[in-house]
Write a sequence for this structure.
């Protein structure tokens, strides 16, 4: 996760062993290093808390002779050595019991040897002694003229930037077991959250200082993480994680036995129990001075404990440290609603929706039952679903609270929205992104659709104009954390521009607030939930439009524009409900061969399911996505055929035209909708077109072979036949060029369903037209030429 190719030419790897003569490199190579090296960082050690001093002395202490020889041969080279705060019994004892009121440990002070012998018998606990002896050696070397710095570190088992967490570490085992039991022992929370990458940045920056004030540093964040903070951070993510007395936690670990990751550390925990767990919980900072590093590096600061905790937790989820049977994730509808109400501090879900509270509890029950019984979700999958539902419910509670304070919210009029639909996810996103450059157009932004009133409901909008900048919006920080941690959002596969909190978003996140969205099926499988959505001619999906409009009213009340520009492929499944909710809506139908659009969708959904499910099957997933896409485009086709009076409400464009002439295509849409395009908006669109052009062209040019997903192109041709027929008519009526490939006959498609355990059944499809034509593949122009519309703008 941290590697970049430009590092390669700056790094020379030398396999060796610093416990051997000349590091095992041979005298010639060692002497070459003595002449060429400018600075030495010594961070290696055998960190084994269970070995005695005799076993660690050779590696951790005597090996320093070779390091000093390297630094002192031919010319002096500055040495930067990492030691440990664990040389102090008080630190090892988590400042419990008699150490709870002690004076701060100052930089450069050596531990009391009598105290060390009492707590660290050298024949049993040798690591602190090996590091203490090394410090004494380096003090003598410095007195003799060797330039050096010593950095004492805490436990370094995790990283902030990547979230990397050392699986074999005691603290990691404690976290995993705590999640497994849904509880953690009070007292252990006092461990400092000091990420290794922040320490590394400080160490390197300090090593480059020419006029350094100090040579001894404590690189530790002395802020403790309290029980209530851990409980709150976990609850905010929808995780049930409570602090308990040590004995209750220990009983749960013993009952689980060797299946508990912390089981092998129980002897260590029992040995230090009096200090680690039986002491009064600490809430004040640890008594450790770290002022030297900030006197030399005043611009540095420690990251928030919450960010470090979340980064480590998310890495551990993706690395599958946690077990699916963990008690910290609850998947019971009523409990999820109760937890959301508790954490939001509110008790009333939005009024006026069909069924009252059942509007929310019924789909949650269907979704969680399906996720529990129909598929095998990983811990990550269970967590992602729980966190998503938790935040959606909190948002709904926040909406209702704001409506009670500001009744004018529900009087907002959502008039003449422009709604982008079509099978091409990438093309839809690009078109919306272009239209968002016009300040007259209001598009949903990622930060506001996921956190309309902030993560905790504290955000209060200032009724800003649509063109106000987003950088200072407090919801951006929560959006950044979500983008970094969500497996549904981290994929850059179809991202034209870098992802950010203010990027235009589709209606999916808005629709998820009704708990009626196909994205739940895409990420978590949940087949019976999908069938529930489709039941009664899609009645449940259509109910979601009431919540959709309500949500838009809130966003419009916060920041208004002339018209909304929305997008979501699933709108094709309920165009009747869309027009019933927004009678004056215009639908921009972006056409592309569904077979071309299907490949990226299969790739993304398969990638997500591999993280969220333990039984993900690429073939099953890809067939489900093919069926869903066929259902969407064919349902939209049938609606258009049955509602000729609404023909003027549709604007048909193609991905091919959008790529060849982006702004000209938007101009055509404006013209058919009776809108004028301001010159400034046109120029902003061309500015966007020029950005990231190579990546955009590459994305539109790529073509995923469908056989890799177990899909048969002839079967797909038959599945999409109704849509092909309709688009050929549109092509004829509106004289589109290269709109769709034609396809052959046949009236069946093979489909495998999870309920049939791999068996195939034949599904009847509408009879194909008796028209056979030459199949043509789509082609796209890589370079974007200056169109006639742009030349006119220039004039």
């Amino acid at each position: 996760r941290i590697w970049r190719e430009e590092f390669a030419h700056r790094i020379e790897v030398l396999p060796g062993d610093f416990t051997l003569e000349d590091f095992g490199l041979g005298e010639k190579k060692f002497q070459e290093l003595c002449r060429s090296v400018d600075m030495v960082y010594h961070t290696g050690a055998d960190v084994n808390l269970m070995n005695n001093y005799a076993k660690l002395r050779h590696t951790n202490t005597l090996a320093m002779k070779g390091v000093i020889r390297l630094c002192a041969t031919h010319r002096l080279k500055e040495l930067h050595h990492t030691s440990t705060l664990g040389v102090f019994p008080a630190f090892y004892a988590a400042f419990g019991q008699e150490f709870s009121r002690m004076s701060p440990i100052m930089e450069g002070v050596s531990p009391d040897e009598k105290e060390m012998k009492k707590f660290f018998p050298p024949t049993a606990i040798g690591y602190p002694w090996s590091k203490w002896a090394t410090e004494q050696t380096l003090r003598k070397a410095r007195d003799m003229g060797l330039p050096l710095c010593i950095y004492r570190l805490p436990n370094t088992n995790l990283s902030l930037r990547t979230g990397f967490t050392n699986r074999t570490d005691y603290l990691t085992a404690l976290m995993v077991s705590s999640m497994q039991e849904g509880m953690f022992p009070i007292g252990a929370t006092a461990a400092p959250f000091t990420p290794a990458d922040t320490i590394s940045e400080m160490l390197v920056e300090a090593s480059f200082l020419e006029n350094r004030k100090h040579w001894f540093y404590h690189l530790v964040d002395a802020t403790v993480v309290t029980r209530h903070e851990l409980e709150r951070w976990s609850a905010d993510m929808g995780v049930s994680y409570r602090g308990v007395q040590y004995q209750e936690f220990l009983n749960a670990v013993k009952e689980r036995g060797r299946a508990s990751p912390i089981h092998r550390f129980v002897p260590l925990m029992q040995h230090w129990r009096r200090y680690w767990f039986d002491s009064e919980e600490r809430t004040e900072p640890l008594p450790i001075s770290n002022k030297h590093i900030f006197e030399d590096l005043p611009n540095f600061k420690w990251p928030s404990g919450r960010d470090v905790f979340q980064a480590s937790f998310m890495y551990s989820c993706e690395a599958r440290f946690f077990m699916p049977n963990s008690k910290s994730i609850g998947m019971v509808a009523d409990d999820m609603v109760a937890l959301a109400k508790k954490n939001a501090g509110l008790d009333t879900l939005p009024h006026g929706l069909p069924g009252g509270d059942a509007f929310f509890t019924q789909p949650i029950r269907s979704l969680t039952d399906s996720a529990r019984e129909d598929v095998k979700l990983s811990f990550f999958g269970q967590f992602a679903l729980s966190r998503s539902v938790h935040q959606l419910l909190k948002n709904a509670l926040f909406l209702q609270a704001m409506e009670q304070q500001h009744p004018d919210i529900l009087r907002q009029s959502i008039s003449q929205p422009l709604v982008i639909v079509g099978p091409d996810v990438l093309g839809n996103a690009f078109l919306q992104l272009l239209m968002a450059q016009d300040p007259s157009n209001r598009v949903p932004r990622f930060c506001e659709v996921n956190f309309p009133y902030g993560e905790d409901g504290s955000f209060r909008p200032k009724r800003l104009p649509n063109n106000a900048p987003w950088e200072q919006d407090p919801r951006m920080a929560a959006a950044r954390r979500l983008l970094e941690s969500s497996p549904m959002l981290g994929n850059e596969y179809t991202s034209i521009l870098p992802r950010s909190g203010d990027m235009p978003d589709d209606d999916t996140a808005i629709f998820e607030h009704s708990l009626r969205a196909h994205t739940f099926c895409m990420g978590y499988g949940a087949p019976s939930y999908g069938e529930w959505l489709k039941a009664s001619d899609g009645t449940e999906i259509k109910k979601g439009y009431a919540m959709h409009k309500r949500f838009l009213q809130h966003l419009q009340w916060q920041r208004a524009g002339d018209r909304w520009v929305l997008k979501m492929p699933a709108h094709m499944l309920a165009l009747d409900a869309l027009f019933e909710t927004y009678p004056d809506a215009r639908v921009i139908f972006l056409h592309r061969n569904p077979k071309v659009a299907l490949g990226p969708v299969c790739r993304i959904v398969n990638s997500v399911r591999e993280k969220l499910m333990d039984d993900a099957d690429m073939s099953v997933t890809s067939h489900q996505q093919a069926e869903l896409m066929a259902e969407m485009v064919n349902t939209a086709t049938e609606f258009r055929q049955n509602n000729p009076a609404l023909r003027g409400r549709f604007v048909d464009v193609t991905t091919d035209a959008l790529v060849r002439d982006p702004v000209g295509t938007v101009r055509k849409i404006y013209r058919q909708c009776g809108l004028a395009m301001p010159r400034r908006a046109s120029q902003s669109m061309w500015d966007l077109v020029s950005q990231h052009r190579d990546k955009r062209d590459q994305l539109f040019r790529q073509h995923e072979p469908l056989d890799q997903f177990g899909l048969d192109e002839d079967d797909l041709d038959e599945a999409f036949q109704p849509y092909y027929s309709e688009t050929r008519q549109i092509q004829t009526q509106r004289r589109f060029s290269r709109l769709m490939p034609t396809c052959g006959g046949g009236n069946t498609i093979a489909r495998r369903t999870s309920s049939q355990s791999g068996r195939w059944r034949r599904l009847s499809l509408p009879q194909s037209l008796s028209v056979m034509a030459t199949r043509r593949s789509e082609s796209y122009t890589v370079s974007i030429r200056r169109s006639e519309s742009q030349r006119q703008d220039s004039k």
